[in-house]
Amino acid sequence: QVQVVESGGGPVQPGGSLRLSCAASGSIYRINAMNWHRQAPGKQRELVARITTVGSTNYADSVKGRFTISRDNAKNTMYLQMNSLKPEDTAVYHCNVLDYSGRSFWGQGTQVTVSS
After folding, report:
1. How far apart are CA 109 and CA 76, in angstroms?
2. For residue 28, what pLDDT is reported?
3. Is 59 helix (H, G, I), strand (E, B) or coil?
4. pLDDT value, residue 1
5. CA-to-CA distance for 55 and 87, rounded, in angstroms?
6. Contact 22/75 with Cβ under 8 angstroms?
7. Which of 115, 101, 105 is nearest to 34 (CA)?
8. Beta strand extents in the chain (DSSP E only)
9. Tens digit of pLDDT for each residue in 15-54?
10. Which residues touch 21 (CB under 8 Å, ≥6 apart)?
11. What number of other Cβ atoms are within 10 A of residue 52's Cβ?
12. Is the pLDDT confidence value at 103 over 80?
């Protein structure tokens, strides 16, 4: 059994910041890539940011320069620092964890609402 739990979402005003966390636990052997996805109402889920085991990162163009992904391999934990938030960043943010055997695990998501 593998559990993936996100936290840190909530309401925030435009221009504000939030830090999301994702913790993986349970019967997971070795984590490979860790990703943040988001899904806004009426839209498809999109990849926001990705980080590999060695720390290589990729970002969606819409968040480059504003979001920073990081991870603590010892704790099987990943973070997403979100700055200069915009209303269009409003979405449910999901953590996705991939292990070296090819398995993929998802969390339930955390809501981020950017509004004045």
Report:
1. 17
2. 79
3. strand
4. 83
5. 29
6. no
7. 105
8. 2-7, 10-12, 18-26, 31-39, 46-51, 57-59, 67-72, 77-82, 91-99, 104-106, 110-114
9. 999 999 999 998 877 899 999 999 999 999 999 999 999 9
10. 6, 7, 8, 77, 78, 79
11. 14
12. yes
